[in-house]
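Reviewers asked in the last cycle whether our approach scales beyond single polypeptides. To address this, we selected a multi-component target totalling 674 residues and predicted its structure end to end. The input consisted of the following lines:
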Amino acid sequence: MKNAALIGNPNTGKTSLFNKLTSSYEYVGNWSGVTVEKKVGELRDNSGLLTDLPGIYSLRPLSKDEAVAAHYLMEESPSLLINIVDASQLERNLQLTLQLVDYGKPVVIGLNMTDVAKARGIEVYSDVLADELGVPVIPLIARTGAGSRELLEKVRELEPPSDGMAAGHLFYGAAIEEAVDRISRELGAASFPKDTRASLRWIALQILENNPAVMDALPHGLNDSLSLICASCSSRLEAEGVSQSIPEYMKHIRTERINRICRKAMDRSHQKPHSLTERIDSVVTHPLFGLPLFAAFMFLMFQITFDWVGNPLSDLLDSFISGPLNNWISDGLSAIHASAFTSALILDGIAGGVGGVLVFVPQIFLLFLMISFIEDSGYMARITLLTDKWMEKIGLSGKSIIPFIIGFGCNVPAIMAARSIEQPKERTLTMLLVPLMSCSARLPVYALFAGIFFESHQALIVLSLYLLGIVSAMLAAKLFSSVLFNGSSSLFVIELPPYRMPQMAALFRNTWEKGKGFLRKAGTIIMGGSVVIWLLTFCGPSGINVDMNDSFLAWIGGLVAPLLSPIGFGTWQAGASLITGFMAKEVVVSTMNIIYHAPGDLLGQQIAHAFTPLQGLSFMVFVLLYTPCLATVGVIRKESASWKWTLFSVGYCLILAYLVSFIFYQGARLLGFS
Ligand code: GDP
Ligand code: MG
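The resulting structure, written as structure tokens, was:
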């Protein structure tokens, strides 16, 4: 009974081949300890079982998920390895191959993606490759199944190499080889491993590479003698003039060998110039230029949303709403002889509150349009790839960037998008941090305040606020991931789709799908909220139709005002707007519209009166960071299934908002700003 394993780099077609080679799933589950799918199936010719291992670039694991393959090789004993190699990326794939040929069990190479290689004008001579590596090579197209029958036949007839060493094993140079011999003798003396799993040579090489998955399995008594051998190997290499560490040096030896193999086994003279996607990717995902380009792209996005297109449109809409529309409504109301109360409720409450928010429809839809463009064009996947390295440093995964970017639109779908992150730790952390992404509901507040105080630098101010949210999220991620969680990060695998010019129709449909929620909110929560808020300004402890300053709203706002005064805006108006803003952050603006009771420009004058520019900025900072809105809190509760995390997200946001505004406001005052 055979027990074969499919092993190879990510995205080389292992799973596709698995489905072609097996007739039925024996078992689908997770590898123990990690959330990586484990698939075992019965080979089509019933000669044994096949295991689909997760993709890896090297046997030396970086994370727990990546360790699955190395643990498997160390602890279970496959009778045969099928190494899937991407023919269009031979150099990169052969690194793993050269580590596998020493394993001590028969290896057969499935040379996959031969169609892709051919389309790119790359020819791989499989017989030359087989000679060079000393193992059989079967060309495949896993997607169609071409070659899978030949592969199965080869698998049936393969015998284990008698001396446990593949013909093509790599000579690593005298220093390494001597260490390998010495380690093998030590292992033999300790009778490790107990049965015939991997070859001693392979284990010794992994020890020299300092592979934790292998080191952990060794008997403890060996540690001292093994480190001695490694140390003497190091110093011998040093004496030979090698400045690299042992693992680096071994990789270097493999790379040289791979280059020699590829010169013989490949013909690239007809290689086609790179496709458009590759050419774009060489710039967009460039290690140096990639991130600045992304930042520039985001800046452009804000320029369009605000300065260039959004604000002029918004101004037009505003003059329509506060001008003709307002007049029509008021004419209509007097035509039906509405009472003074009804007229005030409709004009000051509903029209003021809802209208004040509706004027920001252009900015919000533009932002959604651009997020849809990033998604549909294929750029989103590149951003994921680009940021993964950084995200991993702060305890997140590259995949967290998708919820974060969607979060700029609306936090609710963003938190749902966190489902695609496999690791529970990274998923929870992402959900906690999404509220720091400045959603479009906060835009009306910025647009209002930045328009009043920083008219000529709106895009810059708003972009800084977005960046502040991002930086806070990064710091919080670092803090939370080291204090609240432990556990390793997941293996990052993402497929890069080719770039496509998004279709206009699809783009508009996506934008509409995302943006209609905002309109619905305007018609429900915001309208209802405006009515309630207006009533609270209309009534007070002393009766109805009171002066605004004696109203219930003033009383409620006054309760929190003293708390807010150290951060620059200790007025009941600010307090009341922030409290009502918990319903939805746009309501902050609706409330101000009702309180300051003034359509259009007058509101600006009132606010310019009530706040200094510095206080206005501090207010924007607070609105950015303070408690997520009701709908977001609800979805966090649903997705995390935990009240603890839900309350935590509300609590930490409030504290963070207060701290940052405080430091910002008081710091700026110390520096002499006002
Ligand atoms: P795995 O990550 O190694 O399991 O790779 P998958 O089996 O998931 O395949 C990754 C992608 O490559 C899928 O979109 C496959 O359809 C595609 N694919 C796999 N084999 C071939 C092949 O031989 N030719 C082409 N053109 N595509 C392939
Ligand atoms: Mg797979």
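The chain has a mean pLDDT of 88. We regard this as preliminary and will revisit it once experimental data from Aim 1 are available.
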